[in-house]
Amino acid sequence: MQWKRRPRAYTPERVIIMASKSQEPTDLDKPSESAIEAEIGEFVRRDIVTLRHQPGAESEGVSNNISTLLQRVAGSSVQEIDRMIAELQSLRQLLHSEGARVQREIIDYAQLSQSTTHTIKIINESLAKWKGEGAARARG
Question: Which of 16, 43, 93, 135 is the most buried (most CB within 10 A)?
């Protein structure tokens, strides 16, 4: 199989230069991303050293290295996605349980409100009755 040469703009040296000029990630809590980036950078550096020392390096060996790297990166990505799915599922369960709790609290509040309204009506009727009795005694 005949491999085509990479375009000049994307040589390994150029990739390293572009990677070194890229911005640092703003979220420092993701060591897996920086580990993957470091692994890719190390692979590219090893590839450059190998290519410099072996100008007639077989493209099959290089493609095997790239294939291995891609499998590791893909595996890391799949693990990260699985971790995120598990985290989202736990958050979903939390939201459902909190939703059920809020519904119970609303029902309790509605019952308390009805009870309070009923009690206020009873007190109001009692006060009206006492006022009527008091007014009748005053006249009488």
Answer: 43
Per-residue pLDDT tens over the stretch 20-36:
555 444 444 455 677 77
Which residues have C-beta within 8 Å of that of residue 35, sequence separation ≥ 6? 76
Picking from 108, 88, 106, the residue whose alpha carbon sits closest to that of residue 96 is 88
How many degrees, rounded to 5, is the angle at CA 95 between CA 92 and CA 97?
110
- Name the band, by pLDDT with cuts 50, 70 and 90, for residue 18: low
Coil, strand or helix: which one is 64?
A: helix
Amino acid in the structure at residue 38: A
Q: What is the full DSSP assignment across 97-120?
A: HHHHHHHHHHHHHHHHHHHHHHHH
Please give the model's pTM, rounded to 2 decimal places. 0.41
Contact assessment for residue 32 and residue 80, using Cβ atoms and an 8 Å cutoff: yes
pLDDT at 102: 97
